[in-house]
Design goal:
Blueprint lengths: L11 E4 L2 E8 L9 E5 L15 E18 L2 E2 L1 E6 L2 E7 L5 E20 L19 E2 L3 E6 L2 E12 L4 E11 L5 E9 L2 E9 L4 E10 L13 E9 L2 E10 L4 E4 L2 E4 L2 E3 L1 E6 L12 H13 L4 E4 L6 H10 L2 E5 L7 H4 L4 H16 L5 E5 L9 H17 L5 E5 L13 E5 L10 H13 L9 E5 L18 H17 L3 E6 L5 E2 L12 E2 L13 H10 L4 E2 L1
Helix pairs in contact: 1-2, 4-5, 7-8
Length: about 550
Amino acid sequence: MIRTFCTNKIRESESLNGSDWMFSPDSGQHRGQHFPIVVPGCWESLPAFSNYRGSGCYSRLIEAAGNIRLVFKGVSHTADIYLDGEHLAHHYNAYTAFSAIALNVPSGEHKLEVRVDNSFSEVSALHVPNDYYSYGGISRGVVLEHLEDAFIEYLHVIPQKTATGWDAAVTVQVRNLSSQTLPTTLCCEVAGQACSEPLVLPANGTTQWTQTYSFTDVAEWDIEAPNLHYLSAELSDTEGTYDDLIERFGFREILTEGKDLLLNGKKLRIKGFCRHEDHPMFGCALPLQAIAQDIEIVKDLGGNAIRTVHYPNDELFLDLCDEQGILVWEENHARGLSEEQMRNPHFEEQAEQVIREMINDHFNHPSIFIWGILNECASETVFGRSCYEKQFDLIQHLDTSRPWSTASCKMKDELCLDLSTVISYNIYPEWYVPLPTGDFLADLYDWVQTQAGGQDKPFLITEVGAGAVYGYRNPAAPKWSEEYQRQALEAQISAIFAQDGCSGIFIWQLTDVKVSSEWFANRPRSMNNKGVVDEYRRGKLAYDTVQKLFREQPSYVE
């Protein structure tokens, strides 16, 4: 399954998910052997490769003819695509989609190979030993598309509230694969309104078409009523319609006004959780059912938002959030990088590529209300600030419709407050810092209000929490006990909701997750154990406390 709705009715496409794949590792005792493997999936799910870090080859046979496009929603973390031995594409980063095109493929059976590498090395600036695990494999869905000489690359829509209703500004990008100019007709339909226009597509190039549609009576998307609408485009010539693409969006507007975050003009109270794509059975390749379970847990806890730490998420997750009214903070891939790591010659290119791919692919999701970057990186240094500035500029170039932020842990050393539209901090009083949350937070918030670029902006706590090993219970409530986590979260959440000027909270974190053993050897069980539920989604003692405190808070503040 690639999306929760149909994205093509004309373009012929087929899923390459399933058990037709073989995996062969490049090193270790099983080098050169072939193992049946299911895609999507992580090779760590195979008993022989539970801790394998290295490279290997996925292979299968496909039936194809003419122009084809292979779409990979995620390969962890470096991929090289080959068709019948010919190299088609290279891609770095596990958490964004990419495609490979082959033209004039002879009709028949062909060998598809995907060389995958999850090694840590100098050429990998973002996938480094960290407080989460970099799995290996084809971890998200794969699609084979059969194309004509031109196809629709993407549809983007920006809804904007007006005095009489809503506008929808639409951009359609069409790509011509042929060496000749092509006359074509583009028909675009938005929430039931359609228009068409003849286009002449330049040879071997792309064409952008824009149009604004106006509406006086449409159902809006919000937390309590997540109404969705369809956006579609078709290409046709004298012989008929030959390509199409369907997207989904919501009429909603995210704005900042002084210290408030507004959804369709209503002041938001964020009750969120940080969530990794991680599961003991599936690694980072969670199936739809497991993703849906996580969202249901968030809803049961009284939550209304999820932060995708620390990378873009599978689009199935975003589709479900769109459908169920869950707000999403989505961020590019970078966590805790020092200035030295950010000076890696590959860092800027790789981080900016993630931003481009994340925003281009996830542009239309109404659930996404903030773009985030560079969690806990070197925002306290002059060089680090230059990186933040470049990446925020790129976000503004790609999308003018959403706020942007960064989750900082640099406290009063922070140099980037003026660059964000939302001020966001990760704090751990009563866990790493032996201070009451109320005192710690008030001091930090008051300092932010005295700094240039910090005043009169929304303020969020993007991480707070405490660890607990599931099943470790002790009436004395020492650290790592479920009793201590419950007490700490009660104090933290209560103080954050009581802080004037604070728009809300993302608890660290929803579930316990596996961490890189190379990164933090003293994490109990080689896990980050701060989940409100454990890795098997079993609730800890803090579950009921978080649920009570979150359910007491409305999503919209009068």
